[in-house]
Structures are given as structure tokens and as C-alpha cells.
Amino acid sequence: MQKFSRVVAVAALLGLMSHAGADELEQARKAIMDRFDDVKAENVEPSPIKGMYRVTIPPQVFYISPDARYVVDGEVIDLENKRNLTREYRQQSVVAAIEALGEESMIVFGPKDAEHTVTVFTDIDCGYCRKLHEAVDEYNEQGIRIRYLAYPRAGLESRSYQKAVSAWCADDQKAALTKAKQGEAIPNKTCDDPVTRHFQLGQAIGVSGTPALVFESGQVVPGFVPPKRLAAILNGKMPN
Predict the structure, then answer these.
(1) Which range, of 14-23, 57-66, 69-78, 145-154, averages the lowest pLDDT?
(2) Which of 54, 90, 125, 129 does the annotation list as catalytic?
(3) Catalytic one among 125, 153, 169, 193?
(4) 139-186 confidence digits (pLDDT tens)
(5) Any catalytic annotation for residue 191?
(6) Residue 142: how many other CB atoms lie within 10 Å
(7) pLDDT given for residue 240 in this prediction
(8) Domains in the chain, please, with CATH?
(9) For 62, phi and psi rounded to 5 degrees?
(10) What residues have CB less than 8 Å from 94, skipping those under 6 apart?
């Protein structure tokens, strides 16, 4: 609630409590794009706080004044409807960022017509990541498709990173990843791999440990969740 108070206070102090028309929106977009090289016009929209603009650079969301001078990084809460709007926008942004990677960059276990799809940031040498992978067939049986993104926790200079690159560059990615997660050696390979991009996205989302599960809603859930419990959560039968 303190973050929400700060957002309101900044908006009030700046005198930004009027609705922006189309011309004002275009002026604001120009000012913001001049300030931030990686922001496009479609990334800038009016926010729930009148006069402030919401900027989305997947997976980041922040609020900014029309002249691009003041930035507010915090949560916007709709008290009337009891909704955390920033969290909703951020989750939508996480989904967009993951889908922008393209499923062809992932190692996927399970059919396309599965009831649920869960994207998992995984480290080959992580014990709980290995435990999750041991149960991948059971996740599939529960109607859950598992899409792996690489997240070598030790960094991009680590042995875990090299193992991930070798798995993603293998002719049979699934077999190589499975062998590596079982502690078996796989042939060292290099290619135009997506591991660095996966790792950078995980950092941007705030992944700090593995496995990290991303639901179709964009919600990020840290840690191992057993197949039946995960199915119950996804089917709305059990809280996280």
C-alpha cells in the first residue's frame, strides 16, 4: 500500500490529473521515445492514474510523466475493484516476452493440445530441476505441457551454461537434455543457441532460483511443484 501512496503522491505533486487526449498521447510518446531508445509508440499508453503514462518493455512495466522527466516504479492498486493493476500488466508483459522468444527456441515435452502449458526456467545441474524432469511424463499425463527455457544459475561462463548449450544444440534435444539431467555426459556442441537470451529474460523477470515455473497467465511460481498439485492449481482446485 505504501508503493501505491507514492504513485498517487507523485502524480498529485506534478499536477498530472487530467485526461490526455490523442494529441497529448502522441506528444508524450515522442518525449518518452526520445528519452528511451528501446521504447516504441505502442509501448506507451495512458495509465489508470490520470496524466501518467504506462510504459511496457516486456517484461518491465513502469509509469512516467508526459515530459519523460519523472518515472515511478511501483504497484498501482485499484482499491475499488481490489485489483493489483501493475501485477496484471506485468504478467501480461511476461507472457509477451516469453512468446517473443518463439517456441522453436524451447525444448518442449508434451502435445500441443495439452490442457495447460507451463514454461520452466531450468538449470541442468539443479537438483529440483532434475526432480521435475524425472516426473515430466506424469506432468504430461496430468494434461500439462512443459516448455523448457535455459537458466544456468552459475552464469554464462559456467559449466552448467556449456551443458545447456550442448543440449540445445544437440540433434535430439529432448534426449540430450534428459541425459544431462540424469548426470550423464553429452557431446559438447555449439550453434546459434538461445541460452543467453533465455538467461537474460529470466534475469529481467526476476528469476533467482530454479526451477521457476511460468503459468499461461504470466504468474511466476518459484520451486518444484509435484504434478498432481500443479494440475490442481492450474485447474483452480487449490491455491498456490
Answers:
(1) 14-23
(2) 129
(3) 153
(4) 999 999 999 999 999 999 999 999 999 999 999 999 999 999 999 999
(5) no
(6) 21
(7) 66
(8) 2-97 (3.10.450.70), 102-234 (3.40.30.10)
(9) -150, 175
(10) 58, 59, 205, 214, 218, 220
169 catalytic per annotation: no
Cis peptide bond prior to 59, omega within 30° of 0: yes
**Residue 194, CB half-sphere, CA atoms under 13 Å: how many?**
18
How far is Cα 123 from Cα 130, in angstroms, rounded to an integer?
Answer: 8
Q: Which of 29, 54, 90, 123 is catalytic?
A: 123
Among candidate residues 116, 171, 125, 169, the one with its CA nearest the CA of residue 147: 116
By C-alpha distance, which of 82, 83, 28, 81 is closest to 50? Answer: 28
Closest by Cα among 171, 168, 184 to 125: 184
What lies within 8 Å, CB to CB, of 40 at 6+ separation is: 33
Active site residue 129: yes
Report DSSP letters for 106-131, one per residue: SEEES-TT-SEEEEEEE-TT-HHHHH
Interatomic CA distance for residues 71 and 126, integer angstroms: 38
**Calpha distance 177→124 (Å, rounded):** 8
Give the HSE-up count for residue 217: Cα atoms under 13 Å, Cβ half-sphere.
Answer: 9
Active-site residue (options: 126, 130, 145, 169): 126
CA distance 132 to 120: 10
